[in-house]
Design brief:
The protein is α/β, with parallel strands linked by helices. It has helices at residues 4-16, 19-26, 30-44, 60-87, 100-105, 107-117, 130-139, 205-216, 230-238, 283-301, and strands at 49-52, 55-58, 92-98, 121-127, 144-150, 161-176, 196-199, 222-226, 244-247, 258-261, 267-276.
Length: 302
């Protein structure tokens, strides 16, 4: 009889490509992963891993069993979804991921609402960017993720995932209080052709969007500083070190010395929830999405 947790461990090694990667994904030690795989090899009577330089690779038998493990784990998830659906109640544990401004602007209200409406559901939040969240939902590492795309740059969503809109988030341009355009009722991006920009870190979806959007307006962006958090970006704007895009979700009070100016051709982020389609019948997922949408609606009407 094959042990399900050991199959899950083998599947994680195949997915992450290494024992250390599997350990990180499973939130266990590398020693625990190695022990589980050694037991699985004894159970199957076959070598599943082989040394490959300083790392390991799956043998033919390991790859074959990992493929079966993927299908088995998917069926287990379907079974769990069906059982939860039959009970008709949101219970158990639900792990959710969200990008920072959604974690700050949406999740306090959503999680508080879930605690009141579904006291037997243990919902947990982990902050992460969309480029990390999407593959983690695909792999089943997290149950629900709140991600985003922009009005002119969609975020690719892999097959096998379901999605639901949460809210549309408007974005302004943040400028130092002494900027020539600080008192304008509205601006266009072309107005900032000579300005220095403060952006998200290189390689992030929003950084790529900013470059794409400015170049689409005929502006070659001059990126002077990069920061993950919008609060850090606004602090840099307040110091007169550049201008930045300032989404409204989770913004909070604007620092002294910063002005936010609306853009004539509205810049808008689409914020949405994603989850595995084979878990679609789980009441806990439906409850979480409903809570997130309620939090988004409240923000929109505030």
């Amino acid at each position: 009889m094959l042990n399900l947790e050991r199959l899950r461990t083998l599947h994680a090694v195949a997915r992450h490509g290494s024992v250390s990667g599997a350990a990180d994904g499973l939130h266990v030690t590398t020693s625990a992963v190695s022990q589980q795989l050694a037991k699985l090899e004894r159970e199957t009577g076959q070598q599943l891993l082989a040394k490959n330089g300083r790392g390991v690779r799956l043998t033919d038998a390991g790859r074959l069993l990992a493929e079966h493990a993927s299908r088995i784990l998917s069926q287990v998830e379907l079974a769990q979804a069906d059982l939860e659906a039959q009970r008709g109640r949101a219970v158990g544990e639900l792990l959710m991921g969200a990008f920072p401004t959604a974690a700050r602007g949406l999740f306090p209200a959503a999680l508080a609402g879930l605690r009141v409406e579904h006291p037997q559901l243990r919902a947990r939040l982990e902050e992460m960017e969309p480029d990390e969240a999407v593959p983690r939902v695909v792999r089943g590492d997290i149950d629900v993720a709140v991600v985003l795309d922009w009005y002119n740059k969609p975020l690719p969503v892999p097959d096998g995932l379901a999605k639901a809109p949460v809210l549309d988030d408007l974005a302004d341009v943040a400028v130092p209080a002494g900027h020539p355009l600080a008192d304008r009722d509205e601006v266009v991006l072309e107005d900032f052709a000579e300005d220095e920009w403060i952006s998200w870190p290189r390689g992030e979806f929003c950084h790529d969007w900013l470059l794409f959007t400015l170049r689409g307006k005929g502006v070659e962006p001059r990126i002077s500083h990069m920061a993950e958090e919008h609060h850090t970006q606004l602090a840099l704007v307040a110091a007169g070190l550049g201008i930045a895009v300032a989404p409204r979700l989770g913004r909070g009070p604007v620092p002294e010395g910063v002005r936010v100016v609306p853009v004539r051709h509205t810049m808008r982020r689409h914020v949405f929830a994603i989850w595995r389609a084979d878990a679609d019948r789980r009441p806990s997922i439906r409850a979480a999405v409903d809570a997130l949408r309620a939090a988004g609606t409240a923000l929109g009407s505030g």
